[in-house]
Amino acid sequence: MTLKGKTALVTGSSKGLGRAILLRLAAQGANVVVNYSRDESAANEVLDAARSLGVQAISVAADVSQVDGIQRLYDATVDEFGQVDIVVANAGMEKVNVPVADVTEEDFDLLFRVNTKGPYFVLREAARRIADNGRIITISSNTTTVPQLGVGLYGTSKVATGYLARVLALELGPRGITVNTIVPGPIDGAGIFTDPANDEYKQSLIAMVPIGRLGTTEDVAGIAAFLASDQAGLITGQQIVADGGMH
After folding, report:
1. Are 47 and 34 in contact (CB under 8 A)?
2. pLDDT for 204-238, tens place per residue?
3. Exposed end of the chain (fewer CB within 10 Å): N or C?
4. Ordered structural domains, the chain, with CATH
5. Which one of the listed residues 13, 65, 140, 157 is annotated catalytic?
6. 182: Cα within 13 Å, side-chain hemisphere
């Protein structure tokens, strides 16, 4: 129960990677805020699962690609728990197998709104509101470091958060706040890999991984829980790559 008494806010936590991270933090004793955009049913399932672990939990519907949604999310967190100690900027959108030549302006605007603008303002608000000695974690992608066919737009949209985290680590360090980025490879059972139609693509990626498997949501959740803990107090401004050696 290393996070007992802490409050953790995880964006995009009604399913997939965000869900796994939130429940791992709850299992470590943190009170949690489930954030979702549209799927209230999925959010309620996560809410029940978190409460079954013996912690307090609320859910907040907010589009975190919009600044007013982000502010509403933080307002609800502080109103309920008094402060926020852990922020995980997880919400994002995947778009792969799209050559640069085929990307539309609409594709570009959507991915940069969700994957770049959203996390930027989630972190801006964290810088304003997180408690001293808090923990900020961003979720990037190894497509930012491992060039692959068809991920030009997606990888580019995920680059900014890792850089911003390093700058924010400098700015917030005097308050004892750490800021780190997890850089996962492809995650089995999350994102596009919840669709069996992408099995062939998944197998092609597995062939690129030295350990012979894709990551799981639990792999990444474990890293997030460590970075959120007191044991990681000296780790900040880092990008933790978890891709089975693809990089």
Report:
1. yes
2. 888 888 999 999 999 999 999 999 999 999 999 99
3. N
4. 7-187+216-242 (3.40.50.720)
5. 140
6. 29
